[in-house]
Amino acid sequence: MFFRLVRTDLKRISTYGMYLVIAAFVLIFIFLGLATSAEDLIYSRDDSQPMNIGIVMSADSQFAKIAYESVSSMESFSDSCDFTEIDSKEKALDMLKAGNLFAVIYVPDNIISDIMDGTNTPVEVYYSDDRSLNTFVLNDLFRSTSSMLGISQAAIYSVQAIGRDLELPDKVQTALSDEVNTLFLQNVLNRSAAFAMTEINATRAQRTTDFYICAAIILIIMLCGIILISFRLNVPKAYTTKLCANNAGHILQALSSYISFFVWSYIIYVTVYAALAIISVFSSQIHVHLSIRAMLFGLAISGLISLIVLIVSLIPAGLHGCTLLLVTVTVITAYLSGFFIPEAMLPNFAKTICHSSIFNQMAQHLCRLICS
């Protein structure tokens, strides 16, 4: 009786086959468009223009000139600031009022020697707009740099004290002091040099496009479950009663429905997978190849999604209630698995869930199988 029930359910669910295939192909093109543009959407380029900064160097010290040249050539400053050396303070302020400069930095006499001996002569900064975001950023940069220079000076004094305690020759102490001063000055001003540059992938996959293609395969099967759920719930009461009378109780009916869900979920998986492999032949952005291991892995994906659809269909909420619940579960699961928003950009609580999400793990593994 059970095998007859399975054959009957497979025949009944086949009437939904055309709707499933059409839905799958429509979703393929929608998700492919999103997946191929994912890198452009996530990794946007910084189009901000560098700020024009005028510097008035009243000091003729060679050390001050070297410090200015080193700062202006640093990548961390040249990306955001365009420095211009101006002869006089009055000329610089006129350019500031005319809108040719965003800010003016006035460097007083003997600034480098004052830093070294702890005099702490202030550097004057003038802005064209006191309330802009760039002004806030520059202010914060100046405050943090000033604080770090103060800390560095305390460390320099400690080095000098050690040199005196060790009774090093005066020539060695002077050379040591100059070297330490130079090192601290370079490291404080060029703060980016103290950090290693690490490029972070938002999805933990080799290519963001590959991850979203694999996520699309899983999401398509989950969304097709919305059509499949009506197969189980849109059944006359008399039919289920007759099955119970013929020793096919609710457990066997649920098991038969699960098998039908599983078979058609796997058919959708194979269809979508094959379609993507064919599209990749004609597209340079998509790298999907057929793999026996990926075909077998599709059994696990189909089995898990079919189980979720079956569990939702068992809730006594009616066809519309269960359909709405399945949509909600699909959306929440996809969000917490990084299918909508990359894992690196999720809130902390969602990022923790995403890292251990079984659907995220499935997408990562499928990515390695079909896109590597």
Description:
- There is one protein chain.
- The chain is mainly α and about 375 residues long.
- It has helices at about 1-15, 15-35, 40, 60-75, 75-80, 90-95, 110-115, 135-165, 170-190, 210-235, 235-245, 250-280, 290-315, 320-335, 350-355, 360-370, and strands at about 50-55, 80-85, 105, 125.
- It has a 4-stranded mixed beta sheet, with helices on both faces.
- The two termini are about 45 Å apart.
Outline of this structure?
The chain is mainly α and 372 residues long.
Layout of helices and strands, plus pairs?
Blueprint: H1 2-14, H2 17-36, H3 38-42, E1 51-57, H4 62-73, H5 75-78, E2 81-86, H6 89-97, E3 103-107, H7 111-117, E4 124-127, H8 133-165, H9 170-189, H10 208-233, H11 237-245, H12 250-282, H13 292-313, H14 318-336, H15 348-356, H16 358-370
Helix pairs in contact: 1-12, 2-10, 2-12, 8-9, 10-12, 10-13, 10-14, 10-16, 12-13, 13-14, 13-16
Could you name the key traits of this structure?
372 residues, mainly alpha, four-stranded mixed β-sheet
Which strands sit side by side, in order, in the main sheet?
2-1-3-4
Number of strands: 4
Binned strand content: 5-15%
SSE string, helices as H and strands as E: HHHEHHEHEHEHHHHHHHHH
Structural class: mainly alpha
Shape: elongated
Rg estimate, integer Å: 34 Å
Helix content: 55-70%
